[in-house]
Amino acid sequence: MVELLWNFVEILLEKLGFARAWIRWVMACISSVSYAVLLNSHSHGFIRPERGIRQGDPLSPFLYILCTEALVNVLNQSKTQGKLHGIKLSSSCPAVHHLLFADDSLRMCDATVSEREEIKSCLKLYGDASGQKIEIQEALGIMKEGSERTYLGLPECFKGSKKDLLNFIKEMLEGRLQGCILHGKELLKQGLYRDIGNGVQSNVWAENWIIDGIPRPPMYREDREVNLALEDSVSWGFTKNAPDNRVLPPLEKKLWNNIWKIKAPSKLKHFFWRSLSGVLAVKERLQTRGIQIDATCQSCGARAESISHVLFPCDKARQMWELANIPIPPAGFSVNSVFLNIFHLVGVMNNNSLEMNIRRAVPWVMWQIWKARNSLVFKNTSLSP
Ligand SMILES: [Zn+2]
Fold first, then answer.
1. CB of 282 within 8 A of CB of 310?
2. 177, 276, 282, 385: which has the fewest Cβ within 10 Å?
3. Are residues 176 and 127 in the same domain?
């Protein structure tokens, strides 16, 4: 199918109910096209087409889709007249006699001579009117029956038990749902926090009650006060709009705000934000999203590649922090908490007793570590700290 006649396009757009002015614009676009031919690397001449639109014209794909409506309509008419039957997936559902996908079309009919002839005449009618050259023999030249392969995800041959044929849909759905439920359970486990009141109902050794992820003594004035008059309760930790901000302690809220105030280009602030939000595509994240990969850190091969690992305590990363003379937390970078690590670094950046160069280098070092990780993963080139 190569060509579409201009007058066919125009009449069809009119029949489809487009406004006259709009049709004029479209026709003006189509009929003002000119082509040049590349000959020995030089372009030659302006060829003005006089009849049809061609493949390659950016407007063409859309017009082709609209024009296919005419073919669909012809096929529908044959169906209404009882000349085509199509196939039904169950006795009560409508029959499907064609499927269109990009530039492929699939027609379904009873395996009889009369239905074959009907499809042939539909194609010829459409071809004659639109100017599209349809190779009828090719379109209907069925050399062999459908095999066990699939076409657009569906079995080519619909023979025998539909239950068996379509069972793969059920299996696929079950697999997906299982994945979702497991992911949901994991998320629930991570996101639920114990709100400590009088402490009676909580097991502080086993339950999630410290939002930073790592046990620590209260060390900031902003840490939340415990109200002993209240009973313990459970809150959801992954929301910023929790009732009266109960689950996002002041310290955490402050860090989220502070990352936008650091002195760095916005791409680096955004990078801080992405790290803190957990949206960097490290292997561990990809794995929890259901992508089947080995999550081992490619740089050290010792641990899973999480955001907190790859940017901070991983060997190469730690060397880069040290070489840049940026103070590391006394007990080392946290293995699990991006929050604690970034909290420390924002502290370094705001520490007036440190040299300006060192303070300003912090976001750049973190960015370079990430870039080095990417070139290792994507280009397999190892950059030296
Ligand atoms: Zn590592």
1. yes
2. 177
3. no
Model confidence, pTM? 0.41
Full residue range of the structural domain in which residue 43 is found? 4-144
CA 188 to chain centre: 23
Q: Give the pLDDT confidence of 75-123 residue by residue, as tens digits.
A: 999 989 988 888 888 888 888 888 887 667 788 888 888 988 898 899 8
Distance between Cα 309 and ligand 1 center (Å): 6
Residue 154's H or E segment, with its range, is strand 154-155
Kindly state the DSSP code that residue 98 receives in the 8-state scheme.
Answer: E
Examine the domain organization and report whether 9 and 131 are in the same domain: yes
Do 53 and 107 share a structural domain? yes
CA of 303 to the centre of ligand 1 (A): 6
For the record, the structure tokens of 315 come out as: 């060997």
Q: Does residue 158 belong to any structural domain of this protein?
A: no
Residue 269 is assigned to a structural domain of this protein: yes
The Cβ-side half-sphere exposure at 86, using a 13 Å CA radius, reads: 20
Residue 17: count of CB within 10 angstroms of its CB: 6
Task: Measure 383 CA to ligand 1 centroid, in angstroms.
Answer: 14
Q: In this structure, is residue 150 part of a structural domain?
A: no
